[in-house]
Design a protein that fits this description.
By secondary structure, this protein is mainly α. The chain has 2 helices and no strands. Helix 1 packs antiparallel against helix 2.
Length: about 60
């Protein structure tokens, strides 16, 4: 029974690995973009470029 649970866990991790790995990378990017957006003049363009980069990373086929 324990072996069965381990096999199921490994299969689920394999199926979700791409999505989880890209989210691990893009969440800090998006948080950094939100913090940068506070800067008066350059904040919004920097936030937009960071958000575009995070979207590209989300689309990476892992």
């Amino acid at each position: 029974m324990k072996l069965f649970r381990i096999m199921i866990l490994i299969m689920v991790m394999t199926l979700l690995s791409g999505c989880v790995l890209t989210k691990i990378i893009t969440v800090p990017m998006r948080l950094g973009g939100a913090v940068v957006s506070i800067v008066p003049v350059l904040g919004n363009p920097a936030h937009d470029s960071i958000d575009k980069a995070a979207e590209v990373v989300d689309k990476v086929p892992i």
